[in-house]
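Write out a record, fold above all:
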Amino acid sequence: MRHVIALDVGGTGMKAALAGPGGELLHQARRATGRERGPEAVVAGILDFAAELRAYGADRFGEPAGAAGVAVPGIVDAERGVAVYAANLGWRDVPLRRLLGERLGSVPVALGHDVRTGGLAEGRIGAGQGADRFLFVPLGTGIAGAIGIDGRVEAGAHGFAGEIGHVVVRPGGVACPCGQRGCLERFASASAVSQAWAEASGDPEADAADCAKAVESGDARALAVWRDAVDALADGLVTALTLLDPRVLIIGGGLAEAGETLFTPLRDAVRRRVTFQKLPEIVPAALGDTAGCLGAGLMAWDLLDGADPAAPAARTAPTAPTSTASTAAAAATPPEVTT
């Protein structure tokens, strides 16, 4: 059975899958990055994981994977296939596409930025499916964005397109590691809300999920923290929609797990701020933490289809393994999974 390898590398863990011709995830696995052992160990771990997945796929489906897609954090030069820089992983200028291609038997490999790869999946087969223009904004440790145009994701001239988290929404505000002050992600990311609520509640262990629960119970302190975050987020999003005019605005990441506790006030805040702009549909992301693997799989299939990995594809994909995959997964021992 034809299939591809899909890898989604995060700051602490890796998610991987074998994706079938329809994009379906035939087999899934997870493993720690081992970043505490240094950047060389992280790269070695990625190569080993991919090789084990290739062997597993060849054994179960009668042929090796035809291509691979990998999503990584940080600064990525997708055209050259180089992972330029990732602070969380400690690497610089890693020729990951070449290394993976060599390890996997010279198969074609697509390398992409993690948020843009997740956005590719959300745009094609997730919450933005059918929309000609979308903006995907995950609210996690930081805030980034993926600009979707006709089923592909725009990387920009230098690979920095979509960095909405570093739009200044509070001039002169909190210092950001990027060197500016008042960046959006310092006020509206899940980590920013966690920090603000920990300070307001006096509980150093409190996080954004706790804040959301307190908002739902009517806690005045939580309501103030939440309102500040939503207002900052709305300011940043209105700047983005003024520039990009998306048809759909997809919000994902940890903070979006608050559901309507976030989306109801956010839609209201954006609506109050628009004047001449067209108000986009504001929706939650649909694919959860499988988005990165699904997007990496789509990039890999694009290579086999002869398309640009960021270009449109007619393929649609379910997000759960098929019965065939379940049977195959039960019939053999998969690559070791660690957490």
